[in-house]
Structure of ATP-binding cassette subfamily B protein:
Amino acid sequence: MTVLIGYLRPHRRTLLIGLVLGLLGSAAGLATPLAAKEIIDSLGDGGFPGRPVAVLVGLVVVGTVISFRQWMMMATLAERIVYEARVSVVRRYFAARVGALTGRPTGELVTRATSDPALLHDAAASVVSLVTNVLGFLATLVLMAVLDPVLLGSTLLAVLLVGAVMVTLLPSIGRAQEAAQASIGELGGTLEGSIRAIRTVKASRAEERQSGRIVAAASEAFRHGLHAAHQAAKVWTVSWTGIQLAIIVILGLGAWRVELGLLEVSSLIAFLLYLFQLMGPATEITQNLTTLQAGMAAAARLRTIDELPTEDFTGPPPDSARPDAVLELRRVTARYAPDGPDAVHEIDLTIPRLGHTAVVGPSGAGKTTLFSLVLRFVEPTSGTLLLDGVPYGSHQVRSRFAYVEQETPLVPGTIRDNLRFTHPDATDEELAAALAAVRLTERVAALPQGLDTPLSATELSGGERQRVALARAVIRTPEVLLLDEATAQLDALTEQALQECVRAQSRTGAVVTIAHRLSTVLDADRIVVLEAGRVRAQGTHAQLLETDDLYRRLVEALRIATPRPLTPAR
Ligand SMILES: Nc1ncnc2c1ncn2[C@@H]1O[C@H](COP(=O)(O)OP(=O)(O)OP(=O)(O)O)[C@@H](O)[C@H]1O
């Protein structure tokens, strides 16, 4: 509840106005049976009861206008709260540390931004509605007591019965709704992952298995949803029946009391009108409480997003001293889990301002972790990273790097959107130069919409997509180009285009590649060999071939993968 209140607090003024309007609307509603009683009482006097009828019509009109205003206000507020929750989730995602996001299924994160805020919608309106309804309910009871305390006694019995059922069933509705949403989150996670890997799923003939897993989550959601709906149906039925029974009892009891002369007919009618009015708040309170349960569960899940650790955006930018090394790592250690093993251990490494450094090492040696450290996706547990000789911690320095990921390096949108992703103000000339650098000019020109071709619409090959990603990275020569090479085989043209582009970059800036191809190591000015999170050796290809066993074995493996001579290319 406190979490939900957190979302409502900024709107307390609107909520208060909504509450006041709600109470005024209820007051108008409450006065109508009394006006009706007055009309009935004046029936014997002869003539048309003009004044009481006018009062009654006035009350109806005022009540309607107030209720309409209140409805509009609350509906707007509910939409606004959903919008704000979505905005806050989305902003939080992009401010969060990479590890905090990659540790959770993407589909689940998407559910947090799409369906959970929608549940806050009704909960927000329910809070006001609940207060007005409870107050309206109590006020109706008071007025009924004024009319006839005996009849009220039997009404209260029905109210107590309904109350007891609600107290028993409502918590389990909340739990079931929470479980249903959790299953929907799981469904989203598995579905997203499976669609992403749809080729593998089909090639492995795992369609049935995967859809089975997703359907299992869907049926869990169904089961919990059904449970919640059934419980809600019970609550509603009991509330309705309770009130219906009360009406019958009161009608009988009331008629008897009228007979005995203890009650006026007009009071009995007014009392019955109140009883009918009581049904409104009673059922609405039931509805409000069930909606609130769902809203509170959603708010609690949304709160977990607020707890995602964010990146530290503070810290001084590096000053303009320009030592020979653009990047330096001093005894840098990092691990992914606080009590886990070191992913890299006391790495000492210097990246010169110009030239091409290739990083090689067996799987799990820490190559990706090294890039993640440099880009501050991962924070070191000890040691220092220096840019231009100055320790850096701010993400602002990312503007000085360009990074080409190994997998999914393109973002949704057109080719132009992708090329301009890092520099939205890049000119058409710059785009053309970058495309030329990766030898994509003709390919893109041949597309019907050219640069404006949506990437989803084109079947660019894996190699071409890699080249678009590289073109994006070299739009404005970055100081440090970090390139995680694709492990997949590339066609000769792509390989040559990439190689030439990297070579050109290394003449004006630093290029660091995680090398998966023989041509890359042959082309590099220096090579760093990582093993089990440590720098094992550094040197040129020729030096390392002479001195390092592991390097010889790695190169041999690369040579088998890409048959090329073992001589440097330049
Ligand atoms: N997100 C993560 N959570 C926990 N441990 C991780 C994570 N990413 C990497 N590791 C661990 O850190 C170590 C270094 O991994 P890293 O991915 O940096 O190696 P790599 O050299 O890039 O391997 P590969 O060539 O297979 O991509 C490995 O032991 C790996 O299991």
In short: Residues 207-259 form the longest helix (53 residues). DSSP finds 18 helices and ten strands in the chain.
